């Protein structure tokens, strides 16, 4: 596991009062979602620091063992088969260190939002549902909940009131919409404060979704 925190950081235009830690998908890096910030429709004085971490470089089985940035290995098209629990846990600890750094900078946990796309969304859910303090929100894009059988024993009590938004493309060929919806239904069953929305897209983002994300960010950060 890397010892340093590597990330693309966009500082807020006004006083830093909240942070969004946004995780990229398989094979991308922290620059992948950097361009989304000005598209979110946030107020000019929004005060949100955006942090886009780079995942570690590791061999990915499903991609012929090629080394690339990945939060965990994918060993099969069946995402539930041979899940890379060790790397998932390592990535959770990386995210915890990013959260700790923001808390040291004076941002309380309830003003820190975890977000992620695809693998990054999976790590967002895995990390956020286990974090011992109440975070500001979890934004999970085109993803699923990894290691679902462990959630009942490992979830934190604080996570039950965290706002969660899961967004997915109905034509996603990589992580089928049914896979994302099954994760949503499981989290709903556990009593989480969760919303589910779909869009006419594949494994990607669309402008309608980006606008919904901007409104959601403003809403959860405005909440007491």
Give the strand tally.
9
Which range does the strand content fall in?
15-25%
- What oligomeric assembly is this protein in? single chain
Helical proportion, percent range? 25-40%
- The low-pLDDT segments are none
SSE order: EEEEEHEHEHEHEH
Structural class: alpha/beta
User: Strand order of the main beta sheet, please?
Assistant: 1-3-2-6-7-8-9
Cα Rg: 16 Å
CATH-defined fold name: Rossmann fold
Task: Let me know the average pLDDT.
Answer: 95
Biggest sheet layout? 7 strands, mixed
The rough form would be described as globular
What is the second-level CATH architecture?
3-Layer(aba) Sandwich
CATH top level? Alpha Beta
Secondary-structure map with pairings?
Elements: E1 7-10, E2 18-23, E3 48-53, E4 57-60, E5 66-69, H1 85-104, E6 112-117, H2 119-128, E7 137-141, H3 151-154, E8 164-169, H4 177-189, E9 194-199, H5 207-222
Parallel strand pairs: 2-3, 2-6, 6-7, 7-8, 8-9
Antiparallel strand pairs: 1-3, 4-5
Helix pairs in contact: 1-2
């Amino acid at each position: 596991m890397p010892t340093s925190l590597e990330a693309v950081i966009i500082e807020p235009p006004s006083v830093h009062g909240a942070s969004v830690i946004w995780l990229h998908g398989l094979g991308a890096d922290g620059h992948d979602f950097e361009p989304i910030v000005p598209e979110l429709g946030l107020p000019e004085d929004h005060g949100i620091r955006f942090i886009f971490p780079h995942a570690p470089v590791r061999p990915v089985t499903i991609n012929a063992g090629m080394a690339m940035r990945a939060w965990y290995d994918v060993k099969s098209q069946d995402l539930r088969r041979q899940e890379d629990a060790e790397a998932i846990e390592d990535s959770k600890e990386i995210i915890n260190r990013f959260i700790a750094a923001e808390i040291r900078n004076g941002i309380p946990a309830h003003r820190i939002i975890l977000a992620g796309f695809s693998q990054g969304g999976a790590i967002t859910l895995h990390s956020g549902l286990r974090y011992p303090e109440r975070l500001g929100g979890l934004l999970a894009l085109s993803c699923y909940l990894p290691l679902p059988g462990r959630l009942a024993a490992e979830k934190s009590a604080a996570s039950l009131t965290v706002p969660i938004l899961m967004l997915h493309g109905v034509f996603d060929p990589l992580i089928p919409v049914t896979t994302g919806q099954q994760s949503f239904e499981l989290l709903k069953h556990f009593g989480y404060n969760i919303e589910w929305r779909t869009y006419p897209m594949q494994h990607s983002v669309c402008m309608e979704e980006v606008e919904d994300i901007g409104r959601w960010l403003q809403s959860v950060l405005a909440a007491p």
